[in-house]
């Protein structure tokens, strides 16, 4: 079922002509005689033809059918007129949006999370929206939640590898993936997804505290790793400069002691207290 544009007649001129017909029928009725039956028939026909008038607002379409058969779609704005036997169903073509409820799902690693999204959509094929599904608005809401669940189970909450896409660290990629899944599900209803973005993302309350501790531990480990890497580089540079200048020559034991002391100074959480040895070289 695809949308088929159809033409309609301007409603105002048709209504004015029908009103003139009704007035003419009234005048004939006042004349009496054998024109009474013709006047009544003419007036009834004019009133019946007035039923073919309908209003189409901007960004709205009227889906026209005849005895259950789809005839076409009228998108011309204003007061329009078509065959009175046609039935018309109005469909809004405006851009609409809604926020899904907070869904509780298990992400890729199996941890329960809460997730919600804002979906921006509009109808692009009025015939599919009316005839392919019972209620296209309800269809959009239900399928959006299903797509959000499917997407959330395909990615982890946090990034564990450098090239891994996660829900928290890659919002643009996640939005694109969610939009793709929505388009696949809603195309049959004549709906186009304009935008889809995550509006709420958090661990479920029962594991939120434990996950916070894990994130803090990961941050501490990452910071310590960087500190140690920098400290090792500084120690290597210090030893290389001492050997290059020939200021002092260290055996392996003294070299190890110096490395240990420098690492303690550079990696410690608190400031160190120096001990001055003034009695001998060692």
TrEMBL record:
State the compartments where it is located.
Membrane
| InterPro entries membership | Band_7 (IPR001107), Band_7/SPFH_dom_sf (IPR036013)
Subcellular location, principal: membrane
Is Zinc-finger included in the keywords of this UniProt record?
no
Which topology term describes how it sits in the membrane?
Single-pass membrane protein
Keywords assigned: Membrane, Transmembrane, Transmembrane helix
Checking SMART domains in the record gives: PHB (SM00244)
Question: Keyword Coiled coil: yes or no?
Answer: no
| Record domain Band: where | 51-215
Residue intervals passing through the bilayer:
34-56
- Read off the PANTHER family from this record: BAND 7 DOMAIN-CONTAINING PROTEIN, MEMBRANE PROTEIN-RELATED
Annotated protein name in UniProt: SPFH domain-containing protein
- Where does this protein come from, organism-wise? Luteimonas kalidii
Q: What is the lineage of its organism?
A: Bacteria, Pseudomonadati, Pseudomonadota, Gammaproteobacteria, Lysobacterales
